[in-house]
Amino acid sequence: MYSPQILKTTIVQILLAGLCVLLLSTPALAKEPISAMDVFKIAYASNPVISADGKTIAFHRYHMDIMTDQRKNDLWVIDADGKNMRQISKGFDAVGAAAFTQSGDAIAFVAFEGDTSHIYIQQLNSPVRSELGEGLSDPTNLSFSPDGKWLAFTMSVAYKPETMGTIPSPPEGAKWAEPILVETRSQFRVDGAGYLPFSRHQVFLIPMDGGAVQQLTQGQQDHNSAIEWLPDSSALLLSINFKNNVNKPWDTDIVRLDLKTRQLTAFTTQSGPDSAPRISPDGERIAWVGHQDKPSVYHEYQLYTAKLDGSDVRQLTSGNDFSVIDFAWHPDNQRYYVQYEYRGKSVLALLSADGSVSVLTDKLSGWELDQPYVQGQFSASAGVAAITVGDTTKPSELGVVDRQGRVQTITDFNRPLHDSVQLATVEEHIVKSSVDQREIQYWIMRPPNFDANKSYPMMLQIHGGPWASYGPQFAANNQLYAAAGYVVVYGNPRGSTGYGTDFAHTIDFNFPSRDYDDLMDMVDDSVAMGFVDKEQLYVFGGSGGGTLTAWIVGKTDRFRAAVAVNPVINWTGLALTSDLDKLITNYWFTDLPWENPTDYWSHSPLSLVGNVTTPTMLITGEEDWRTPIWEAEQYFNALQIEGVDTVLVRVPGASHQIEHRPSQLLAKVNAILAWFERYSKPIKSSKGQ
């Protein structure tokens, strides 16, 4: 006879064995295609910063807050081996810039609460946190001195604007209108911020042993720049518009700010922007990115280096046909980490002094969730690089490239999304341009549960810029379009970046133009594959892509419906009202609007509106100052006058990035799907029927 304990053990073993058989015989729960509410499951890593010893990484973790309808972020740190991840900030409205102390045992960060902002320093081996300074106004660009005695940062300081005339003072208790504002600034309004306050960024110091905040710079010059210390902690390096050329606000120079004299001295003087100064690990040289000014909107940024006194200037990337997005010194003082775009990928590579390049990874990814733009970030020190990494089904996670060049993803914030949602993948294609046989790269995203015997409606998606590029990146919008049953086609027509200098400059002073033909070649190539219904073609795009969308419907009627998101419709109006007005008038065209109005008009989609028969919807942010709302309004009114089916969708509170809030992303997607559905027809069940 069995003892009670043996009998109990036997029963448990039998039950466990039966449970295992049941689990093995039960099919796994099928994942469902992504839905609108799944967007709130998305999280992503951004803004990595690595400590000087390469052992610790700080980064922002963003998530979609369903109650406030915001992208919320907090500061986290993690060891470079993927262990010991912990949250540093909690309970703030948002966090901003962060910087490690030189020893790496503490981190300073900016935190925002309502209308107030703070700088805190958090010890990493204890819960001790202290606040630095008080009464701060949006501090940023934090940087500790090499000797550990100072924290430098920039912060906005208000000044009194010019007045024009005076009026009597109101009686006590009266409620009069706000006073008039007199503008003399070359830029007084910026997309995403609106009308700018009357303030300039100045440079400040906080002593780490206690004491008052010290302001180092004064006056009307804006000093909003990343800060680099000289090795002896005697001076700072900044990148500012030292020449103060009204027509070239981006023409920045690297300047030296002496801490004792508080005098600014130019380190670079070339015509064109120089920025991101960084000192070599041995303290002997400085490197930076910049380019010579030339008559084009798009420029290839080069990597330069020189001795600290400005002598022995070397241009390191003149033999490479790419534009340097970001860089960092390698600890051997001879090589450099460089980030650049290449054929739809964001690449991190090592650049040697002789110009040779060794790719570390092409999997960098960015924060733009709605469209598959080529993006990415990295921070490197002591031979270790922290990167943001992802692909078409993975929003950006945090990754590491170790000293041996091995790449590892060390976070998994989107596991809940991947465990429950079926995401569409993309496939790469190449088509020869019908214009000049250039290779045009594009991608196709097929609906989940794709059936090759069916014929699907197709969306052509066009990127903005136009000097930008799409690639195999995660895009929530595209996933939702595919889940709705569409084949999504997107690619990089001429003018896109990442394909060399010549390819990018083919649209200089000529946009839109032959990029239209490249886009039609993508459509033709996709239709020829046999699973796209050529009677159900749709087109949409935003910004420069919205401009091309409006241009396309003025050239062809092959699309059943179109959506132009925050487009340029009339270049003359845009050139004098956009927050990029000086860039457009001085570089986008060869002449000023009043000198050659025909050139501006001939590239404006409004000039073709009389040809349009395609139902066209306009979507625009009410607070878009990049391509202001009146651009879309002109086209909407013109289409109505021409009797073309049209609607104007206004997004309250939205800037040029109309999908910044999660619900705005969903509203845009659903409006586009509803518009296309209005002009759709039933899907064919199989080929030939």
Chain-wise SSE layout:
Elements: H1 4-25, E1 32-33, E2 43-50, E3 56-65, E4 70-79, E5 86-87, E6 94-100, E7 106-113, E8 116-123, E9 129-136, E10 140-144, E11 150-158, E12 189-190, E13 194-195, E14 199-207, E15 214-215, E16 228-229, E17 235-240, E18 253-258, E19 264-266, E20 274-279, E21 285-290, E22 302-307, E23 314-315, E24 326-329, E25 336-342, E26 345-351, E27 357-364, E28 378-381, E29 384-391, E30 394-401, E31 407-409, H2 415-420, E32 421-422, E33 426-432, E34 439-445, E35 456-462, H3 476-483, E36 487-491, H4 501-505, H5 515-527, E37 532-542, H6 544-553, E38 561-565, H7 571-575, H8 581-588, H9 597-602, E39 616-621, H10 629-642, E40 646-651, H11 662-678
Parallel strand pairs: 1-32, 35-36, 35-37, 37-38, 38-39, 39-40
Antiparallel strand pairs: 2-3, 3-4, 4-5, 6-7, 7-8, 8-9, 10-11, 11-14, 12-13, 14-15, 16-17, 17-18, 18-19, 20-21, 21-22, 22-23, 24-25, 25-26, 26-27, 28-29, 29-30, 30-31, 33-34, 34-36
In short:
The chain is α+β, with helices and mostly antiparallel strands and 689 residues long.
The outline comes out as globular
Query: What CATH architecture label of the largest domain applies?
Result: 6 Propeller
Chain-averaged pLDDT: 93
Low confidence ranges: 1-28, 683-689
What is the total number of structural domains? 2
Q: Report Rg.
A: 28 Å
**What percentage of the residues does DSSP assign to strands (E)?**
25-35%
Name of the CATH homologous superfamily of the largest domain:
TolB, C-terminal domain
What class do helices, strands and sheet pairing give?
A: alpha+beta
* Neighbour order of strands in the largest sheet: 33-34-36-35-37-38-39-40
Number-wise, the strands total 40
CATH class of the largest domain: Mainly Beta
**Could you estimate the helical fraction of the residues in percent?**
10-25%
Largest sheet: 8 strands, mixed
Q: Look up the CATH topology of the largest domain.
A: Neuraminidase
- How far is the first residue's CA from the last residue's CA? 74 Å
Q: How many helical stretches?
A: 11
